[in-house]
Amino acid sequence: MSHSPYIPLTAIDCTIPALLIDRNAPLDVLHANATARVLAVTQLMETFSSREVQEADAVDLKHLAATAAVLLRDGCDLLNVLGWRLQPS
């Protein structure tokens, strides 16, 4: 891991990242942000699973999948930082 206090989110591959995680953020803040993203995807998938698949077209499915992927990747990035912070020195 680099020495920068900020770690870019990895969901969007770009040469100059605009969204960063502060590796020195309080643990509860890292956890709350990860939880919010994972919960959003969970609720999205629960809503989606209660619908008939035949009602959705390919574009809608692609948009839902892309949204879920970005939110889950952000949540994983936050949980990775949280995990690094919880490791004994």
TrEMBL record:
It comes from the Bacteria. This is Short-chain dehydrogenase.
